[in-house]
């Protein structure tokens, strides 16, 4: 990486059409963020609970 280079890793989740609370959405976005960090620089990851059914329990979604 070049000195002064800017990189980004972003985790995304949506509350639209759900009955989950803001704190749960932030927890799910945080899980997506750590997935982006794991996969490398300049990544955007969207939280998808269907891909990992156990993840809602980790994020505190009932």
Polypeptide structure, described:
- This protein has 62 residues and is of the alpha+beta class.
- It has one domain.
- 37% of the residues lie in helices and 13% in strands.
- The protein is built from two helices and two strands, in the order E-H-E-H.
- The chain has helices at residues 22-39, 55-59; strands spanning 9-12, 43-46.
- A two-stranded parallel sheet has the order 1-2.
- The mean pLDDT is 82.
**N-C termini distance:** 41 Å
Structural class: alpha+beta
Determine the fraction of residues in helical runs and give it as a percent range: 25-40%
**Low-pLDDT sequence parts:** none
Number of strands: 2
For the biggest sheet, the summary is: 2 strands, parallel
Query: Average pLDDT, to the nearest integer?
Result: 82
Sequence of strands across the biggest β-sheet: 1-2
Gyration radius (Cα, Å) is 13 Å
Large-scale geometry: elongated
Q: What is the number of helices?
A: 2
Task: Please indicate the count of domains.
Answer: 1
What is the strand content?
A: 5-15%
> Can you write the helix and strand succession as a string?
EHEH
Short description:
With 62 residues, the chain is α+β, with helices and mostly antiparallel strands.
Can you lay out the helices and strands and say which pair or pack?
Elements: E1 9-12, H1 22-39, E2 43-46, H2 55-59
Parallel strand pairs: 1-2
Features:
two-stranded parallel sheet; 62 residues; 2 strands; alpha+beta
């Amino acid at each position: 990486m070049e000195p002064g280079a800017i990189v980004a890793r972003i985790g995304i989740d949506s509350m639209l059409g759900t009955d989950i609370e803001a704190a749960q959405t932030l927890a799910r976005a945080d899980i997506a963020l750590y997935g982006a960090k794991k996969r490398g620089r300049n990544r955007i990851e969207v939280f998808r609970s269907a891909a990992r059914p156990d993840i809602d329990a980790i994020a505190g979604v009932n």
